[in-house]
Amino acid sequence: MKLMVFVLNQEEKLEEVLEGFLEIGIKGATVLESVGMGKIISSDIPIFAGLRELFVSASPHNRTIFSVIEDSQVDEIIHIIDKIMGGIKKEPGKGVIFFLDVFKFVGAEESLK
């Protein structure tokens, strides 16, 4: 099993991403509102306000999606996200996705079946 973490910088794509997950058999995910470090540093910490130009491409808000998935779904997820995002692998700033090994998963095992 893997923990998928996808930081989606284009909030308007959230519904399409979740629909894509359903199409490939992902039945459950948690979606959190999130803010990147660049946004906080450039606007909320006065001493760094002068660095605002460095973070121009930083999305002010994003969504972080977590889901425990089967190992066999990793490539499908990367493919569907890349397709929906129009090239996440080629263009920085659309989001990031990574996977971590899960040692044990308890509480919603039926969502993996």
Describe the structure.
With 113 residues, this protein is an alpha+beta fold. It has three helices and four strands; from the N terminus they run βαβαβαβ. The protein has a four-stranded antiparallel sheet with strand order 2-3-1-4, with no helix packed on it. α1 (14-23) runs antiparallel to α3 (74-85). The longest helix has 12 residues, at 74-85. It is globular. The mean pLDDT is 82.
What's the helix and strand layout?
Blueprint: E1 2-8, H1 14-23, E2 30-34, H2 37-44, E3 62-69, H3 74-85, E4 95-101
Antiparallel strand pairs: 1-3, 1-4, 2-3
Task: Please report the total strand number as a whole number.
Answer: 4
Order of helices and strands: EHEHEHE
**In angstroms, what is the radius of gyration?**
16 Å
Largest sheet: 4 strands, antiparallel
Provide the spatial order of strands within the biggest beta sheet: 2-3-1-4
Q: What's the overall geometry?
A: globular
> Under the CATH scheme, which class?
Alpha Beta
| Helix content class | 25-40%
Structural class: alpha+beta
| Beta-strand residue fraction | 15-25%
Indicate the low-confidence ranges by residue numbers: none
Mean pLDDT, as a whole number?
82
Span from first to last CA? 12 Å
Q: Could you say how many structural domains there are in total? A: 1
Named CATH topology? Alpha-Beta Plaits
What is the CATH architecture term? 2-Layer Sandwich
Helix tally?
A: 3
